[in-house]
Amino acid sequence: MATHRFAYPSVVESEERFLNDLAQVAQRERLEEDVRRAMMLTLSEAFTNALVHGNRLDPAKTVWVEVRVDEATVSAEVADEGNCGLAELAARPQTGQLDDHGRGIGLMEHFAAEVVFGETLTGGLKVSVRFRRLVERTRG
Amino acid sequence: MTITVETFGNVAVLRLNGRLDLASGAELKQKAKDLFAQDRTTLHLNLAGVEFINSSGLGALVSTMKETRLRKGRLTLSNLASYVQEIFEITQLSHIFEIFPTEEEALVSNRAAVID
Questions:
Q1: Domain tally, chain A
Q2: pTM of the prediction?
């Protein structure tokens, strides 16, 4: 299993760096196109959430990312250093059709095989996601 | 993300290239704001070059559409890659936006709206 770890300051510019790093992981690990797209979208949602809602764009706070790849699955965790945790997630309002926010979690749940929300030891939000690779699907 | 702007009659066509996300979504909203300041309220977004879009990018599109409607203008989209189209379907935004297969068809529709 290959493990890739990244850490980013909570500034808007980190989003592009993160997506570039993720694209490199996909290339290095030769991920299938649909898995690559699903991973990029899902993790970008988790990352933006950590950056904006968790760490509130505080440059002193870090967004932590770990991506693990093996033949059958890609799994990843995105954690922030905020203190919103699960309570704020549970209290989020329903998204209306014309709202310009609030679609991220629905997209994550659509594209990932599994999405689990948890808390870090310090009360930040930790999102764990998993994707099935073609190898596993063709066996099944 | 690069955004180029070209005008055809009363329509401002914005061609987007790259990732439409948090940072570039803000850039798109600013471009639209600049056009509104020039009294341009009929916008067309050609998304042929959009290789990636997430909910922040979708939010920027929704925000731009709302601002356009507030000014009694019109926002159309075209050339969505199949992957982008799929995201519009999942989020049901395909029902909210006026989406055309090509930029030309959107421009024809805008010309027809002016004649009406």
A1: 1
A2: 0.92
